[in-house]
């Protein structure tokens, strides 16, 4: 009886140890699948509070002034109201925001690229942005339904050197290619954009018109061109590993969280310093302006170490 | 036989460790009443099994100070059929910021809800209010300083309510909310946007019913309550912020912020000039109404979590030159660098 009991126990111990070894080897991880995904690409996180506090006041104001964002916002005349809304909301927080359109239209204040092909249009827009950058060193590319919190973007890249190549956003993988998802917004440093523009001249590696039978999406074409010039995609996330670039609206992410994490909906949903949400309609964008830049509980203070002033001549933030 | 046991043991050990790894050290808190603890709340203490008192930690001194100085009892008007679909999300979000919460229903339950001696239905709403206030007066007159009514589709920012109430006197007969100008001379407060009674106002409401000066005049509970308030000399107060923007809002944020936002006739009832667009609502908004569960969490995220790093808010009351409302003991507004 005793020997039978002990053989059972030995079996249990062996089984448990076997399971642990398997999971440690990484080929078999039962509950932590997200971690294996993360190891496929680079993670880019903002400075921690402690690191920020190490900067002197002078350094802080220098750094705040230097991080300036040129927003490249792609629109089409068919959805004029999206241009109007972006113009009236989040894009006011860019240091410069320029709208790029496929064709001209009345009332639409945008650079007319006269181009219907999405990839060719993006190329032209980026070329224009590069040539008109002025002193601006960070570039953010948005689609019409994307809402960006530029302050959080600045925080993400705060002490990063734009003369280094950076290509940041929500990273996806297609075969061997890692690319930044267009829908959730793309961030490029000056150096990355410079290299990209240089690569535009290489028709074999970075063609303007796809020669293949099937159409490759612009986000992948962009990634390919950048890859050839030695620039690689990095996934923007906060200190807890939460995504900063989202292709869904807050509402959709909350709904997902209500199903997946019913006991901790908000905490599990989204980052406190999220940069983008997408798939938003104009009404949602107006509400988000209020939610982000105005609505707050009295007496809760974030003790942010730096200051970004509100834009001039605006009444909804 | 020993061999079989051994194999059984291997399987058991393997699956036990597998389960353990899967759950990943997640611990869901559950107190004696089967109430799940939510984010930022370490437990719910219960008194008399029906009153919930959130036990939560503040990281901010000012909010903490205010919650000690201005105690608010929240009572949420709900019904048995809404507990799972609406009220549990109230409990998971803004109710955690109240000093004490009571969920008022026609039936007592383990939610926990207070069972009032009424039946459900629109025509019973004022009876429900009357019974609820009688219950609070009997059991909780000194549990808090102010008494807030909300619906199960109202979203409230308690810190902003306290900021406003800190400057008011609970021994004065006064009540606050989103003021309507119609039907009653001094106006009355929208029920959906939530209204808050001072202790004296609560006393007078109860006196009104016990003396017969107030009766069940109508089932439109906010209007009927407003009538009793006027009868008993309870003043309908002005809760707008320093820029004359409303704090209690009877509709959803989009309905107020967009122009046009809503065509509902009650939008035109407002006592003060109605503004559509960004001027509609205070930065320190106290409430919104017609909020579905998904939106409760969304508003919770916007209010307490999502933050534009380093942004200097435009509206800083302490910066304004004519800011002089300073009740002794009330923390003065100041901008944290």
From TrEMBL, chain A:
InterPro entries reported in the protein's UniProt record: C1GALT1/C1GALT1_chp1 (IPR026050)
Transmembrane segments: none
Membrane topology: Single-pass type II membrane protein
Subcellular location: Membrane
Gene3D superfamilies on file: 3.90.550.50
Alphabetized UniProt keyword annotations: Membrane, Signal-anchor, Transmembrane, Transmembrane helix
Coiled coil: none
GO molecular function terms listed in the Swiss-Prot or TrEMBL record: glycoprotein-N-acetylgalactosamine 3-beta-galactosyltransferase activity
UniProt-recorded name of the protein: C1GALT1-specific chaperone 1
Naturally occurring in which organism (per UniProt): Astyanax mexicanus
Automatic annotation (TrEMBL), chain B:
GO biological process terms, semicolon-separated: angiogenesis
Cofactor names: Mn(2+)
EC number: 2.4.1.122
Single GO MF descriptor: nucleotide binding
Statement: the UniProt record of this protein carries the keyword DNA repair: no
UniProt subcellular location: Membrane
Signal peptide start and end residues: 1-19
Family: Belongs to the glycosyltransferase 31 family. Beta3-Gal-T subfamily.
Description of how the protein assembles with itself and partners: Homodimer; disulfide-linked.
Stated name of the protein: Glycoprotein-N-acetylgalactosamine 3-beta-galactosyltransferase 1
Species name: Astyanax mexicanus (Blind cave fish)
